[in-house]
Structures are given as structure tokens and as C-alpha cells.
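== Fold encoding ==
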Amino acid sequence: MTLTPFHLAIPVRDIAEARNFYGTRLGFAEGRSDVHWVDFDLFGHQLVVHLDPALGSQGQVAHIKQGVDGHGVPVPHFGVVLTLAQWDQFRMQIDGVIDEFIIEPYTRFEGLPGEQKTMFFQDPSGNALEFKAFKDIQSALFSTA
């Protein structure tokens, strides 16, 4: 099966702050934009940040945490599955850019089916992001055994 890019729209409390985080700090190229929204290229996928006045200047998206491999995974969250080389490169790229991780970069399910590198952090509006990678994406992404 050939994968096609996804489109995801998320709320942010401030467009300039989101531009700085996604564009300047994370290095995602900007696409179309308006006063109330901006498109970003998230590894070939379309991430759109939309101004949400309900968040207020200090507000953040609410989430809960679910236990996975001994860590509290934030829900909701979104992210992208990368190759190991892409993940390693991105991890190095954001070194010193991300002040605090929700879950520090590590290898999850080590030695088990579905072994993966993963890391979680959030944007200034509280949107939780996960970046993960598998040795063999096709066989491991939905592996149950």
C-alpha cells in the first residue's frame, strides 16, 4: 500500500508563537497561511495550526496520561513515524531546542515486537507530539506478536 500525506489541524493560543516553535525551532517549512492559521510541512504531511481564542494567552490543550511501557503517554497526542536515520537526525536537530520532554528519547519495548525509538514533547499551546521510529516500519508498525 502506498501511503499518502495526512492533514491535521490543531489549536494554538498564538500564531506568532506557533510559527516560532514549528518553523524556527523545529525547522518545519511553512506553506500557506492567513491571520488565523498556518500550514507546516511535517515530514511531508500537512500540519495546520489554527488560532483558538478559547485557549487564552497562557492556556494549554488539556490531556490525560495513559501508561505505556512504564511511561505516562499524553492523550491526545499526534506525531509521525520516521525511519531510524530520520529519527536520529531529528533528535540531534532538536537538541538544545526542546527545553523539556514529556518522555525523554528512548527505545520502547526493547527486544520485543514493535521495538521503537520514541520521544514526546509539547508545543507552547500544550499540543503533545510524538516522534517514533522502527527498524522495519512495514513489519513493526502494527505488530502484535
The domain at 7-53+61-140 is CATH 3.10.180.10 (2,3-Dihydroxybiphenyl 1,2-Dioxygenase; domain 1). Residues 15-25 form the longest helix (11 residues). The chain has a mean pLDDT of 91.
